[in-house]
Amino acid sequence: MPDDLDINEVDGRMLLNSVPGVGPVTFQQLLNCFNQQPRKILSANEAELRSVKGVGKLVSEGIKNSVSSGWIEKEKERLTKIGGAFLLGDQVSKYLKELSDPPLGLYCLGEIPYLPCISIVGTRIPSNYGKKMARMIAGDLAKAGICVDSGMARGIDTEAHQGALDAGGKTIAFLGSGLDVIYPPENLDLYRRIQQSGAVLSEFPLGRKADRRTFPMRNRLVAGVSLGVLVIESAKTGGSMITARLAGEQGRTVFALPGRVDQPESQGCLELIRDGATLVRNANDILDEIMPMLGEFNFLDQPTQSLVKQEESLTLEQNERIIMNLLREGDSLSIDQLQLATKIPLSGITSSITMLEIQGFVSKRADGNYEAT
């Protein structure tokens, strides 16, 4: 076997990612046979390649042709021109490695927010109620230090991204197309906003258009980086239900917002709730559910202020300081008691107490009151 190809792992993965027929499953088979080194795969001859399960003539020829085509230099030049990078999966989330079919790598525009993620997905034709709830829940999650992730599709995906951005939070979008193919085209401004407050990601080479195959592949990543997936309005079939199923298979929590029993767009969510999904009324229902997971599911390697205790002088905002001063006196107080004592609006109390709980400064007692830790 020739072993003289001078190519690093990132470039090797990008090159193999461009070969038709080399998807995540076939790539894992190749890695297992070639000492986990993309360079050795690209250096192998066709006979050696075809000895690998799932590799036939078209794939082996595609791998050999990719090496001599000069494609990698052109792709890297195009990617640099748009300000992007090609990342390994664990640079986005180390839990992507736990997927049965992890991506070879991910094209990225923007900066990965090192925060716990919740996915919000749903119908492309939402009701006004669905739009309002998606924006509200995404915004409240973002204020609590959660990164909202979705697929930048029309409808609920779009509302979720916008809700997080409007709240000053972080969001990431996984595309079902190449990074330079904006779909749907009317989301160009959203695409640009997400890059400024998060990242747009794709596992597909530049120029790849979305199709029936790419969307399910995108959906597994939307679920894979998250602590849980919230479905807001979905029929019994469709991409949102696929994402929810994938989340369950990956051991993530599935959340669903209930809707009217006589509306088609509510049937998927009602079915999920019937089958055991967590019913969600607001962001607090999600935060209460994932709170115990934050230590167990350290999804990203880099700690953040949202997940680790820091000096209070650096992390606590004014409302949080007022609440902490009250709780340090030794009493345990309910949300209503805190609001009455501080005169802070109820929404401010809720978001502040959630942030304090995530940071580890307060804890919720069995009676529902809060106390300083």
Counted up, domains total 3
**Tertiary shape:** elongated
The biggest beta sheet, please? 9 strands, mixed
Helix content: 40-55%
Structural class: alpha/beta
Provide an overview of this structure.
The protein is an alpha/beta fold. The protein has three domains: 9-73, 5' to 3' exonuclease, C-terminal subdomain (DNA polymerase, domain 1, Orthogonal Bundle); 94-296, Rossmann fold (3-Layer(aba) Sandwich); 312-372, Orthogonal Bundle (Arc Repressor Mutant, subunit A), CATH 1.10.10. The protein has 19 helices and eleven strands. The chain has a nine-stranded mixed sheet with strand order 1-2-6-5-4-3-7-8-9, with helices on both faces. Helix 9 (156-166) links the parallel strand 4 and strand 5 (171-174). The chain is elongated, with a radius of gyration of 23 Å. The protein starts with 8 loop residues before the first helix and ends with a strand.
Question: Can you give me a brief rundown of this structure?
Answer:
With 373 residues, the chain is an alpha/beta fold. The chain contains 19 helices and eleven strands.
Describe how the helices and strands are arranged:
Layout lengths: L8 H9 L6 H10 L4 H6 L2 H5 L6 H12 L2 H11 L3 E3 L1 H4 L13 E5 L6 E6 L5 H16 L3 E4 L5 H11 L4 E4 L13 H9 L1 E5 L11 H11 L3 E5 L6 H11 L3 E5 L9 H8 L3 E2 L3 H8 L2 H4 L15 H4 L2 H10 L7 H8 L3 H14 L2 E3 L5 E3 L1
Parallel strand pairs: 3-4, 3-7, 4-5, 5-6, 7-8, 8-9
Antiparallel strand pairs: 1-2, 2-6, 10-11
Helix pairs in contact: 8-9, 8-14, 11-12, 18-19
